[in-house]
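User
New here, explain this?
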Amino acid sequence: MPYSMLLMLPRRPDLTPEQFREHYENGHVPLINSLCEDPNLRPILYKRTYFVAELMGPSGYDCVTEMQFRDQEHFQRYAAVMQAPETKVKIEEDEGKFLKRDGVKMVIVDPVQ
């Protein structure tokens, strides 16, 4: 059974939505992929959806990222790689360039179509 998560990501207030997206797509995503060298450990889905309008008031977020893994064990193996001390430092350093890190939310979800 797939194991899915959503990350709600707010941008740093000093960045425009365009700057946020530019760094996420052309800086952060390539960095994340380079830090997980084994393509079999990477998520089977790494989808980013950027907000273009907020119709019912401000949400405080600029992007929702969906990550899906084959199962919980696949996620745990990926997380172990990404949480290794030297890797975690690189990720957090890069996140500081475009995210309001204390506003990031992550939830495990059960998608239904």
Q: What stands out?
A: The radius of gyration is 14 Å. The beta strands are 3-9, 45-50, 63-69, 105-109. The chain has a mean pLDDT of 95. The chain has one domain: 3-109.
